[in-house]
Specification:
With 375 residues, this protein is an alpha/beta fold. It is 32% helix and 18% strand.
Length: 375
């Protein structure tokens, strides 16, 4: 990144739950306060705040900040990576000195299902919804089906991936799904949009998440070991029609990572762990392929041979991923990367000597990624 060196210094989750009964502001406030406590910062030290689909001005003053020098509601983008990237760049450019990136996501009530019409019928959706195409899992089924056709991957490989994810989750007290799982459990799960099974999908919940970025100089005075931001990238390769992607196997992650590596001397060979979005498990496979961690079409074998385990070539989604931690819109991957690079996990989940981590969000038309290093 150009400009001032930037570090992540505080992270925090709200108490995630299924149908928590708590408001968005409650989750935002709890996550923000916990990130401030983690960093050892008073709220009035924040001078910037960015959100995804929230009101950064109201949230900032709700938690007791002073006057803001910079604020942004991203609105639409590849999940939490976008507010995080904008926060880091605001610090790097000097627009603000201490910036919080925040995301609150709630389990969507059935009453807002776009199949009911209303706003869901606007624009291009009018050509899909009347035919029953209104849920993200449906385009995920298209992408996964094409991926299975063009690669050596099998449904058994996706089963092994799910089992590895759940194994990490059993060691993570913040995961919502912690019951041990077998390959047979995965294969017995129902299809939601064949070949996508229930256990390929992230787990809906109510959650808030916050990460605080500041300058390296300021970070040295705080209570946590700083984690440095080395490079970021945001990518958009087409419009938002996932079903009309010209290539359903090599999508935005490939372009995003090309841009990411241009911003650093680090390479995939330097990575000690990767936290790769798994809104659907196929997304993680696409990121692994885009990373070039193995030959094209051979991610299935890489996963099945243990490549993503803690003792594997690239420990991946070491918190259990969104399929188990819950749908945090990718914020969990940033927070897990920070914690791995701090080296604060116990031996059952800590990547030994972790110094370089990559975390990423999204797939298809758009994507984002960030490389971070231990200080």
């Amino acid at each position: 990144m150009n400009g001032r060196r930037v570090a992540a210094v505080g992270v925090g989750f709200s108490d995630a739950a299924r149908r928590s009964g708590r408001s968005e502001r409650w989750h935002a406030a709890q996550a923000a306060v916990r990130a401030l406590e983690d960093a050892g910062l008073p709220a009035d030290q924040l001078d910037g705040l960015t959100t995804w689909g929230g009101n950064p001005i109201d949230i900032a003053h709700m938690v007791g900040t002073g006057p803001l020098r910079w604020h942004l509601d991203v609105g639409i983008s590849p999940a939490f990576i976008s507010p995080a990237v904008h926060a880091a760049h605001a610090v790097a450019s000097g627009q603000a000195d201490v910036v919080m990136a925040l995301r609150v996501i709630r389990q969507r009530p059935a009453a807002t299902d776009p199949a009911a019409g209303g706003e869901g019928m606007l624009a291009d959706a009018q050509f899909a919804h009347p035919f029953g195409d209104f849920a993200p899992v449906q385009w995920a089924g298209l992408l996964m089906n094409r991926y299975l056709h063009e690669s050596d991957a099998t449904e058994d490989d996706f089963a092994r991936f799910a089992v590895t994810q759940r194994d990490y989750a059993t060691r993570n007290p913040e995961a919502l799904q912690r019951t041990p799982m077998t390959v047979e459990d995965y294969l017995a799960a129902p299809y939601i949009s064949r070949p996508v099974r229930l256990l390929d999908c992230d787990y809906p919940c109510d959650s808030g998440a916050a990460v605080i970025f500041t300058t390296v100089e300021r970070a040295r005075d705080l209570q946590q070991k700083p984690v440095l931001v080395e490079a970021t990238a945001l990518s958009a390769i087409s419009d938002m029609n996932f079903e009309l992607l010209p290539d359903m196997v090599r999508t935005a992650p490939a372009h995003c990572l090309d841009e990411l590596w241009r911003g650093t001397d680090l390479t995939v060979a330097d990575l000690d762990c990767a936290q790769l979005y798994d809104g659907f498990s196929l997304i993680t496979f696409q990121w692994l392929e885009a990373l070039g961690i193995c030959e094209p079409g051979q991610v299935g074998g890489f996963v099945t041979s243990g490549g993503t385990r803690l003792d594997g070539a690239l420990p991946t989604n070491t918190d259990g991923g969104a399929t188990n931690v819950g749908r945090r819109h990718g914020a969990n991957f940033c927070i897990e990367a920070v914690r791995q690079l701090r080296g604060t996990h116990g031996p059952d989940r800590q990547v030994p000597g972790a110094e370089v981590a990559l975390w990423a969000n999204a797939v298809g038309p758009f994507a984002g990624a960030m490389v971070m290093t231990a200080s």
